[in-house]
């Protein structure tokens, strides 16, 4: 069973990213974690029975009508993915922004399928988007 709690810096730093998100490991620094927690928007963490953070996600307000969704997910969290999907679906539905964007690695087929299941539409390919030069798709959901 997972417990959803308010996002804290320690949660972000504790998530052991799934292989499909391993490229982001160098990006997830203490400074970056602080920025995510302090940003205007919403954020939460999923904790396992032992209190370990297995996933973190949120939407950062870019401006009054636009948010940027993000998620850090461990292999362990994938075992509870139906619950995570329900939580994230509810957050996206209730979010105040007219437009919510997210990026997905172009090779992460499960991530692509999930973005589309959440109702996001692919808008384009961003070449060499990640620090290691990977391509990402830009997705958006407009209410």
Structure description:
It is built from five helices and seven strands; from the N terminus they run βααβββααβαββ. With 143 residues, it is an alpha+beta fold. It has a seven-stranded mixed β-sheet with strand order 1-2-3-4-5-7-6. It is globular. It starts with a strand and ends with a strand.
Blueprint (SSEs and pairs):
Elements lengths: L2 E4 L2 H6 L15 H9 L2 E7 L5 E11 L2 E8 L1 H4 L2 H14 L4 E7 L3 H9 L3 E6 L9 E7 L1
Parallel strand pairs: 4-5
Antiparallel strand pairs: 1-2, 2-3, 3-4, 5-7, 6-7
Concise overview:
With 143 residues, the protein is an alpha+beta fold.
Side-by-side strand order of the widest sheet:
1-2-3-4-5-7-6
Low-confidence stretches: none
DSSP summary, beta strand count: 7
Helix content: 25-40%
Tell me the series of helices and strands, N- to C-terminal.
EHHEEEHHEHEE
- Quote the distance from N terminus to C terminus: 32 Å
Give the radius of gyration.
14 Å
Proportion of beta-strand residues: 25-35%
Q: How is the main sheet built?
A: 7 strands, mixed
Using the coordinates above, name the CATH class: Alpha Beta
The CATH superfamily is identified as Gcn5-related N-acetyltransferase (GNAT)
The DSSP helix count reads 5
What is the CATH topology descriptor? Aminopeptidase
User: Helix/strand/pairing class, anyone?
Assistant: alpha+beta
Whole-number average pLDDT? 95
CATH architecture: 3-Layer(aba) Sandwich
Quick one: overall form?
globular
- Oligomer designation: single chain
